[in-house]
Amino acid sequence: MSLVQYSDSDSDSEPSPPRKKIVRPADPDLPPLPASFHSLYASSTRVSTKDDPSLHAGRKRAIPHVEGNWPSHLYLEWVPVKEELRLLTDLIQATDPISSDSTSRDNQNKIANTSANTNANANDPASIHSLLHTDLGAQLPLHISLSRPVILRNEQRAPFSETFAETINASNIPSFHVSPQTLKWDSNYEKTRWFLVLRVSRPKYDNLNRLLKTCNSVLHRFGQPPLYAKLDEIENGNEGEDLALKSASTSNSGVRPVPVPMSVSTSTPQSTPVNGDENNGDFSSCFHISIAWRLKEPDPGEVERVQSIDLDKVRAIDIPFHCVKAKIGNYVETFELPARA
């Protein structure tokens, strides 16, 4: 039997009617992607097995990699929509006198979507690096930290996740909204990096402070330092004694905690509450969202420039938070908050 012969000429067969293209109208009310979706792409590809600042715009690893250690972080995630992203891009551009004075709006948007730097020379310590996009132009989620960068041992991973889930569920803290309020430069603990941060409003029912206290209590059980708070604000301990300097006892989970020195917190700004140690657990002045960073400390003129930027449109942004995220190594878990009260 021979193979089936197919004609190589359109004249040998009836012409097929053209297919009608189906155009579906865009639905303006499509639901947002679930928070867990962004967790699938939360980790970048490792490009080196050792700390090489030249691969990360001069940044140095705050916590050296040790086998069996899992760098961890608790946070609230925000993925700005297109218009919000444009407003944040304008903010970053406005902090740089060269970009804001000589770059057109079209060029600004092009820069924001193709590079993480607003200055031409990325190796310049004064260069401002956006946290809105990757070097390839992909959008990055922003966040409010609820912990320092801490270290969990391999055997602590599962107990920590279980304890955190139980504590969040028992807290009855509902989902909530905040809005940006002020813009300023703030440094990390070692003053090796400066971050352009947006302070946020105090939400209804004081849910940010409530979440911080909840997170700090879980971290304490695993021998980890708190964010912002002192030990006496977490439990009835010695006044002013920081958890990071206190030897921790065995946690309720049966896993021996691993105390971590305060100096681990170098990747996020270290805000100081307005009322210092007498703030009665109110850290509303500390909560912030970082949108850019640089290696060089801003001079007084740059600080003044940031303070003079008009924030009226940015303050109108409504930022919802429906879950807390825990990043342990390269794995991100999502812990849902109850429905908004």
UniProtKB/TrEMBL annotation:
EC number: 3.1.4.-
An individual GO BP term: U6 snRNA 3'-end processing
GO molecular function, one term: lyase activity
Enzyme class, broadest EC rank: hydrolase
Keywords attached to this entry: Hydrolase, Lyase, Nuclease, Nucleus
The organism's place on the tree of life at top rank: Eukaryota
Protein name per its UniProtKB record: U6 snRNA phosphodiesterase
Disordered, as annotated region: 1-37, 248-279
Principal location listed in the UniProt entry: nucleus
Compartments, as annotated in UniProt: Nucleus
The protein's role, per its UniProt record: Phosphodiesterase responsible for the U6 snRNA 3' end processing. Acts as an exoribonuclease (RNase) responsible for trimming the poly(U) tract of the last nucleotides in the pre-U6 snRNA molecule, leading to the formation of mature U6 snRNA.
Active site (UniProt): 143, 288
PANTHER family named in the record: U6 SNRNA PHOSPHODIESTERASE 1
Any one cellular-component term (Gene Ontology): nucleus
Listed Low complexity bias regions: 253-274
Protein family membership: Belongs to the 2H phosphoesterase superfamily. USB1 family.
